[in-house]
């Protein structure tokens, strides 16, 4: 009897732990279209005002995010509705694969990809590598480097030293 109880407990624990092992995705809740617009706007996009189509799922979709963006997995039945919706929100795709259902839109701050196969529909939002904050940081870095080069050049002129090879004004 103890052995049966122990093996049942082991099976239950194994099932529980295997159920907890996921790919890091979270269950989406609510209107998928509203979620996509919210995420894109947070990344700096300025989508056109659209009416959310009733054909987009309100459940049954999942998402995972990291520092570069978000991946949304939706049922394949959402593909046509998402294609139409993303076209209204972000305009004509910058790239479209004529041999497969993959489209890419670009909006300030984000690139949006829609890809569908027989198993799922995937929407990927990728943050721009050159957001306003990053552009500002790059400009400040360039300004700092130029200031250092100017200071070195002035110091070298005062001391009569030659400018080191590969440095100085270009």
Task: Give a written overview of the molecule.
The chain is an alpha+beta fold and 170 residues long. It has 2 domains: 19-127, 3-Layer(aba) Sandwich (Protein Transport Mog1p, Chain A); 130-170. Helices cover 41% and strands 21% of the residues. The chain has 4 helices and 7 strands. The protein has helices at 2-20, 32-42, 79-90, 132-159; strands at residues 26-27, 62-66, 69-74, 95-97, 102-107, 110-116, 121-127. Strands 1-2-3-7-6-5-4 form a 7-stranded antiparallel beta sheet, covered by helices on one side. β6 and β7 (121-127) form a beta hairpin.
- Helical content stands at 40-55%
CATH second-level architecture of the largest domain: 3-Layer(aba) Sandwich
Task: Give the class from helix and strand content and strand pairing.
Answer: alpha+beta
Shape: elongated
Straight-line distance between termini? 85 Å
Number of domains: 2
- Please give the largest β-sheet: 7 strands, antiparallel
CATH topology of the largest domain: Protein Transport Mog1p, Chain A
- CATH first level of the largest domain: Alpha Beta
In DSSP terms (H or I, runs of 4 or more residues), the helix count works out at: 4
Beta-strand residue percentage: 15-25%
What is the string of helix and strand elements? HEHEEHEEEEH
Rg: 26 Å
Model regions low in confidence, pLDDT < 50 over at least 5 residues: 1-21, 166-170
Q: What's the average pLDDT?
A: 77
Summarize the structure.
By secondary structure, the chain is an alpha+beta fold.
